[in-house]
Design a protein that fits this description.
single chain, mainly beta, Neuraminidase, Immunoglobulin-like, 2 domains, twelve-stranded antiparallel beta sheet, 0% helix, elongated
Length: 251
Amino acid sequence: NGESGTIKTGTIQNEQITLSEPVIFSSSATTEIALAAINSTDFVITYLSGGAMGESIMGKLAGNSVVFTNSWVYCGNAVSGNAVVSLSDSIAVVSYADIGNNNYGTSKIMHIRNDGLIYGDAVIYIEGGAFTTQGSVLSDSTFVLVFRNERNNFSGSSICGKITTDQTIGVEYNTTIHDIAIYPNPTMGFVTVEGSGINKIVVLNMSGQTIETIQPSENETNIDLTHFEKGFYLIKAVWDNQTVIRKVVLE
């Protein structure tokens, strides 16, 4: 249907799902749809519309169908990596890569009102491309974003955000994003873990069980894996407020 943004409700009964008739919420070409529940009947959808402009819309369950409000633009530039998290019945956060601003990872607070959505100012959480973003709620005031980090070879990265009392800005992040490099990988027995400020390094098996804990050096830590069986292992680097896990192959 011309790639229109479309939704169906489903009723689950006796292990069967009965779907409603489709309801269109965006008549233009619609991609990267993300949905967050506000309460048991209301929800917000964020999506890319037409020329990849960031838009949002509120919906309400009405029997076996959905009623939508008007849509609101949250970013007039082209965006990608659209994600949304709802922290209460009055607050949500939309996050995206702002293509018009060098793909910087960006968030905006959404104040949910009966008559629509009010957006705060844009908050940059990483100065570099942040793609394939997903979000998850941790509490009623904090959330985590995971994304592909362009400035670090598109590796998987994460960052925690929290709601502030500032109604205009509304969101703040721990902007220090740590990462590690492990080499050689695959290895015949010895690996070097490169990264600064690490509190501890943990070697785990693929079941997540700790098999060795190492006190790291300042910037480079050499690890001896020769006493382990060949196979796959996980190297976990731990900072005060972040953890990074990478897989290593022992041949």
